[in-house]
Amino acid sequence: MLLYFLIPWMFLILLPWLPQAKTRPLFIAMALSDTLQAIFGLSLGQSFHGSWWPSLGLNIALAVTPFSQPLLWLNGIVLLSIACTNQSPSRDSVFWLSLAYSGVSLAFLSRNLLLYFLGFEIAVLPFYLLVRKEGGTDRRAAALYFLAFSAIAGMFLLAATLTLVVHHITTFDSHVVPRTLQFSVYGLLLVMWAIKTPLWPFHLWLPRTHGEASTPVSMYLSGVALKVAPFGFLSFSSMLAPAIHHASSLLALWGALTVLLGSLLALGQTDLKQTVAQSSIASMGYVLIALSFGTSLGNQAAILIMIGHGLASPLLFLVTSRIYDLIGSRQIQDMTGLYQKSPALVSWLTVGAFAYMGIPGLALFPGEFGVVMVALQRDPVILYLIIPAMLFMAATWLRVLARVHFGHLTRSTSNVSSRTGSVWSAAWLGIPLILIGIAPIWWTHIWNWGGLK
């Protein structure tokens, strides 16, 4: 387990002294080696414990759980896809992305409350600096939006964590939380989850950040970093079960509203990158519905949605970037007949779009189907919001697919065959998206879930 952390940290230490020409190949080597370490070196139940600052309640407590293992795999796969597709990364961007990767890994493995908070915060600053330095024309405002919302969420998470630590509850494995304490802690955590997941109406920072962020930043933020907050929800849920049960119907309704409004916002977009960003909000609404009831099936469905979204969203951000390289625009109306120019690019766009539409055989379908099953069992009323949302999401992406597959390309294209040729690196994301969708039960057995239940 220590090797999993040692690889990226050694890379971070050596990176400032490496020549620029070696940055990309060594970035790929680091991402590949750590991904292999996550898949083959981290086994279920593996743990590490050490004393760090016992008087403060801050000790090293790391463990691979059935729910953290697939997210650790996802973490490595997304970073590897970024390393392979980014042709000329700057040393600064590689450094900050690798630091964010280390923070997210720490959050996924941590069983100590303050250690989880530390990982959460380590992953925040790099994104602010990356957007601030390498974003678009309105990058300063977008970076400030991101930092402000993240800082507020971090304060609420710290307040909740310290409240528990003061009462000598320092790990996620603690099962005795006073009932009166649960509701105050749960209220603090709920604000953090709403901001960083994000949920409507606390989602405003996300589309603005994606709109200005570079492609690697959008890929990693949507693919992995957004999963830290809902994973925290899942980790805290066993400690706060009565509070979560008490608010389950309200949370499910909030999640369903997020799904519906996220789908409507996506349908109203004319910019493809903003369409992907707004669609992400809807997916996170499904996650909240799945987690709100605290059932085994709901928790499993939430992880499957996070995995599916973590593959589909960066895939679509990558494709959007290559389309912009090709035609110089992200406007959907400018993409008429794009299939004629780049069938491979449009094929990957179709895979990602089908995933967001919940088509069977792709990784988002099993999770969304699990949400529908949980809703039927616990609160069928929210289906009146979920079903229209599914139709709006389908309309959103069918509109895009009709535009790119049919008609004649009227916009002039750039000669960027060397860049668009690298779109086949999208296979790092597209192939797992298909494999998990085809045989979800097989993967749940690998992750020791015992199948979907």
TrEMBL record:
Membrane-topology descriptor: Multi-pass membrane protein
Domain of life: Bacteria
A Pfam family recorded for this sequence: Proton_antipo_M
Keyword terms: Membrane, Transmembrane, Transmembrane helix
Main location: membrane
InterPro entries tied to this protein: NADH_UbQ_OxRdtase, ND/Mrp_TM
Compartments, record wording: Endomembrane system; Membrane
Domain NADH:quinone oxidoreductase/Mrp antiporter transmembrane: 110-386
Entry's transmembrane regions: 57-81, 93-109, 115-131, 143-165, 185-206, 218-241, 247-267, 279-297, 303-324, 345-365, 381-402, 423-443
Protein name as annotated: NADH dehydrogenase
Species assigned in the record: Sulfobacillus thermotolerans
